[in-house]
Design goal:
With 488 residues, the protein is mainly alpha-helical. It is built from 16 helices and 9 strands.
């Protein structure tokens, strides 16, 4: 029994040893399989990474090739565009040269037909507007008279052609240089001057040309300045009648001082009435010059309040309109049929000159001049600038929305607070713009509806801006000239 038990034990040990060996062998085999599998997976991963890298490199190379091809095409397109642009510019230059050559040939052909000073003047009158003709004739006449009065001074026998004035008056108009050549002038080597040699000077011919040019200037003048002067005479007579009536009614004493004061006040009102009438006349004339074929711009509604207040009420104004060609039709309008544009252009110049001559005499200009003269510091000037801007904005709102009564009122105290202080005589200045002040000058309003004249307010706004532009520029210049920098 002992031998059998030892034998079974030996057998069991052998089985265990065999099992352990088999297990170790299986474990080693499993580890080897695992290593092989990992090595295979690693190899597959490396191969996949290599494949992906090759694909990425190929894609990059393809992209780079596409980019280079695109860049090459763009460069080629730009080069073609540049060549086309250069060729186009060359073609345009050739075209311009040809056009300039044709223009010069046509100009030379026209100039060859002008054999005398009279023909040259007639050509300019027929082909150019009144401003150009007047500028050319005035400059040529001045040249002739200067040489006649100073025959020995060479500077008067040389005319520069490069300035803006000479280009407009002498170079561009056909006929101007013809007159100079007929008088003996010749172009210098570089063409920048026309020179009259002393040996070619003919005083009698120069005097004759000056007379002819003077006659042209006289013929192109309008009758409006004389009519405006006549209107002033009638206004003066009207002022004297009113003053005499006031004195007779007991509104003034009989002494000369009161009469002079009343007459002065009436004259100021009359001149202002004429001034705003001329502003409306200028508007009418400007409209016709701008669109002479427009029925609306060539007619005036006689039922309009502006016509009644600005034109009809001014002495001699209707005769001015009649002189320009306006005539009443059956529909209650003054109409100008087929307006003479040259006459209207010359009239616009004359009316503008009449307004400029009277611009410094308006009550707005004189009152603003006093206010500007008191602005002696930077702070005062800043207050005044803000004050004028505020007034302009207030008038603009009234003109744009005339029936919005909330814009017709001003709180004077609030105005001065907003601009930074009280502007001397600022409250009284409001009355010149159409406002009415209360007793303590703290509030102002525009009368409405009685006495409300939006057209007059619009014109006073224009006058305010004109006066401010002139006076502020003069004030700044004066302070710079005296070495001050507070208004810079």
């Amino acid at each position: 029994s002992s031998s059998s038990s030892s034998s079974s034990s030996s057998i069991a040990k052998k089985k265990t040893s065999t099992t352990r060996k088999r297990s170790k062998a299986e474990q080693r085999a499993a580890e080897q399989r695992k290593k092989k599998r990992e090595a295979l997976e690693r190899k597959l991963r490396e191969e996949e990474q290599n494949r992906l890298e090759q694909e990425r490199q190929a894609e990059l190379a393809e992209r780079q090739a596409i980019a280079e091809e695109l860049k090459r095409k763009q460069e080629e397109a730009e080069r073609r565009k540049k060549l086309e642009r250069i060729e186009k510019e060359r073609a345009e230059k050739r075209k311009l040269r040809e056009a300039e050559r044709e223009r010069r040939e046509k100009r030379a052909a026209k100039e060859r037909k002008l054999k005398s000073v009279e023909q040259a003047i007639e050509y300019m009158v027929a082909n150019y507007d009144s401003h150009r003709v007047e500028a050319t004739c005035a400059l040529l006449r001045k040249v002739c008279l200067n040489i006649v009065q100073h025959p020995k001074e060479a500077k008067y026998r040389s005319i520069g052609l490069t300035s803006q004035r000479a280009q407009v008056a002498l170079v561009r108009p056909i006929g101007a240089q013809v007159i100079l050549r007929l008088l003996g002038f010749r172009a210098d080597a570089d063409g920048s001057h026309m020179v009259l040699a002393s040996g070619a000077m003919d005083v009698r011919r120069l005097k004759s040309a000056a007379e002819k040019l003077g006659r042209v200037l006289k013929q192109r003048a309008t009758e409006l300045p004389a009519m405006i002067a006549k209107s002033e005479e009638l206004l003066e007579a009207r002022c004297r009648k009113r003053v005499a009536r006031q004195l007779a009614d007991g509104n003034g004493d009989d002494n000369k001082d009161d009469e002079a004061a009343l007459l002065k006040k009436e004259r100021v009102r009359a001149q202002e009435h004429l001034y705003y009438g001329l502003m409306e006349l200028k508007k009418v004339v400007s409209n016709v010059v701008a669109l002479p074929t427009s029925r609306n711009f060539c007619s005036i509604d006689m039922s309009d309040k502006v016509y009644e207040a600005r034109l009809k009420s001014v002495p001699h104004m209707l005769k001015m309109l009649q002189y320009l060609g306006f005539a009443p039709n059956n529909n209650g309008y003054l109409v100008v049929e087929k307006p003479n544009v040259s006459l209207f252009e010359a009239s616009l110049r004359d009316v503008s000159q009449a307004l400029a001559a009277r611009g410094s005499s308006t009550r707005i200009f004189r009152a603003l001049s006093k206010i500007v003269s008191r602005a002696t510091t930077k702070e005062q000037w800043g207050m005044l600038v803000s004050f004028i801007e505020l007034l302009d904005g207030s008038l603009e709102r009234i003109v744009d929305t005339p029936h919005e009564q909330k814009f017709h009122k001003l709180n004077v105290k609030a105005v001065f607070k907003r601009v930074g202080g009280v502007v001397p005589d600022g409250a009284r200045f409001l009355t010149l713009l159409g406002f009415v002040l209360n007793a303590d000058h703290t509030r102002a309003h525009v009368p409405y509806p009685d006495g409300f004249d939006v057209d007059l307010i619009a014109k006073k706004r224009v006058e305010l801006n004109r006066a401010w532009q002139v006076l502020s520029a003069a004030h700044r210049t004066a302070n710079r000239d005296h070495g001050f920098s507070v208004f810079a």
